[in-house]
Each structure stands twice: as structure tokens, then as C-alpha cells.
């Protein structure tokens, strides 16, 4: 049985083919990549909340036992050339993935903003929040955002990683804490702009609100457990999730709860 897909991504006609078959599966993947994602959109005999991850080898498609490895770089020591890299924890169906978000800030570019794998409206919101609530001077910079391996970030759990990647490329160099509080008001001390890589072994989970506050996302326990199993030392999460995650036992990983982006900047970059 043969059919074709229209420019909008729908099966041609009034989806006749979908109605008369028991299952519809889509094989997704970048043209030059050896990895393929098998995604069901209809299944009469089971759930569609599953995702198959395969790699093409000389013996054909082989199951990838650790899907996160296809989206993450090899760990390296801290270096200026690795600034702007942050690890997000996302879910697709019932599977949890760790993906890498890359950010680049360039002054004097003719391109104001370019995103790949991230919703443009979501990226614009996060950048605006960083300027307004965290004090980053991004107005005169071209900002490039990219998701490694061509995966699309479609949920809000990656907001915090996107913000952290941008901060890594464009953070404040200060003596002591980056952001200090006095009588509940924050004051920013600016000595210059520097690039700092995010230390290895840190992952980010959380949605960013318009006031810079962090919100929980569904599946916090499963996401954090995956991060711990992969050997990460620290996971930055919303403050509201810290207590519940502390009770499930996450091996040697430290869960750090933050109320807003200012606290995240202090915790991640103060050590530099």
C-alpha cells in the first residue's frame, strides 16, 4: 500500500491510509546522521507514547541502548572554546533524553538572531527575561542557538539550559557573588563581560517564567533519575522540586534548587 505526504506533513487526502491501517510509524533523522527515530502516531494495539532510537550499522539498524549519547559531546576539561554549552533533560513519550544546547553571542553581526531546534518565540522570551531580570546586556549582540544532533526542543523543560548556555557566553565578571541582594532588591556589579564554560557534570531542568522565576515540569523524578544514572554530579532544578527529589535517592548526584535565574547564575558561575 503506497501513499505520499504533503508539504504540510500530512498524509495525502482525508488521511484515508491512516484510517484503514492498524499502525502508522514515522522514521525521522538527519540526512547525514546515522541515527534514526521511530515514532508512532497511531497504534490500535498499544501506546503511542514510545520512541524507538536506532543507529545504522553494517548489519542494519541497531537499537541504541543509551539514547542520550547521541545528543551529548564527549566530556572535556573546562575551556573557553567550550563556553556556551549546557545540558537539558527532555522527555519524548516515556523516554528521557539528555541533549546539549549551544549558544553563541557575537557583536557587530548583521544577523540579529538565529535558532536551530528551538522554538523562535520561546528563545525570544528567554533572551528578553535574561535582559530584564538578570541584567545581561544582549541588545547589541547577535545570538545563535542550536540543539546538537538535530533534535527539536519542543517542551519548556529546556528553558533553563537555554538560559544557562547564553549566560555562559555572556556573563558578568565580578568579585564575589555575581548578584547580591540587599533588603530584597538585587544589585548588579559589572566589571566587564567574559565567557565562562559551564563546569562538567551539571544538567538543567526547569521552565523559565517572565519574572525570571523557575517552574517545575512534568516527570521531574524520572528526569532527575536519568541524570543521576548517567553519572552527573549536580542537577539544577526549580526550588519547588528540591524537596521531592531529595526523597527519592539519586546516588551521588546533588540536587540544587533555585528560585530564579539570578540564583542559577550565582551557583553556576560564582566559582569562576
From the 3D structure, determine the CATH topology of the largest domain.
Answer: Ribosomal Protein S5, domain 2
User: Strand pairing plus helix content: what structural class?
Assistant: alpha/beta
Based on Cα principal axes, name the global outline: globular
As a percent range, the share of helical residues equals: 10-25%
Element order: H for helix, E for strand: HEEEEEEEHEHEEEEEEEHEHEH
Distance between the termini: 60 Å
Radius of gyration: 20 Å
What is the number of E strands? 17
Count of helical segments? 6
Strands side by side in the biggest sheet: 7-8-6-5-13-16-17
Average pLDDT number: 80
Task: State the CATH class of the largest domain.
Answer: Alpha Beta
* Second CATH tier, the architecture of the largest domain: 2-Layer Sandwich
Main sheet?
7 strands, mixed
Task: List segments where confidence is low: pLDDT < 50 over at least 5 consecutive residues.
Answer: 172-193
Strand content: 25-35%
Number of domains as seen in the coordinates: 2
Characterization of the model:
This protein has two domains: 16-65, no CATH class; 70-269, Ribosomal Protein S5, domain 2, CATH 3.30.230.10. It is built from six helices and 17 strands. The N and C termini lie far apart (60 Å). The protein has 272 residues and is of the alpha/beta class. It has a seven-stranded mixed sheet, sandwiched between helices. Strands 1-2-3-4 form a four-stranded antiparallel sheet, with no helix packed on it. The model is unreliable at 172-193 (pLDDT under 50). It has helices spanning 16-20, 120-133, 159-169, 220-229, 239-246, 261-269, and strands at residues 23-28, 35-43, 52-57, 60-63, 85-92, 95-107, 113-116, 141-147, 171-172, 179-182, 185-188, 193-194, 202-204, 207-208, 214-215, 234-238, 254-258. Helix 3 packs across helix 6. 21% of the residues lie in helices and 32% in strands.
